[in-house]
């Protein structure tokens, strides 16, 4: 998975700006170059973008069954890429009053919408209810907000970095992050 968010949409933490990248022979790439590089690895890859504000890209899994899923979902102009699995999805579906056919990505969109519309629930309140190995990125096109999180058990790994134009790049593919962000990248923090 890949998410690229314009610096006006997501402000990167100062710690991601590595002074070593100024002296490196590797130079960070622009968002379009990063996106093209990512989707060139698979004929099944797809992406969705909203001008220069953001892009999400996704490569469906090659295996039909895996403990850790890769899911993409778009509901009411809210888009989610979900990696992993939730052990307590059935109880969360009942708690939120969702249909039995709801998958993890659909649930995350509904949980995000609950945070946005029915707050004031702090995000960590919703995240602490999630049991499993997961990482996700949600983009709300109407509110122009990004919500990303990574489970604490470290089975799923995400990385983030800074592109040449200052955009924030998030991916589960470390090679993509290294090639795209030069030295300005780090593991994504858990529980965010």
TrEMBL record:
Gene3D superfamilies for the chain: Glutamine Phosphoribosylpyrophosphate, subunit 1, domain 1
Xref: SMART domains: DUF3700
All copies of domain DUF3700, residue ranges: 2-191
Pfam families, alphabetized: DUF3700
PANTHER family referenced in this protein's UniProt entry, alphabetically: ALUMINUM INDUCED PROTEIN WITH YGL AND LRDR MOTIFS, STEM-SPECIFIC PROTEIN TSJT1-LIKE
Name of the protein: DUF3700 domain-containing protein
Species annotation: Lithocarpus litseifolius
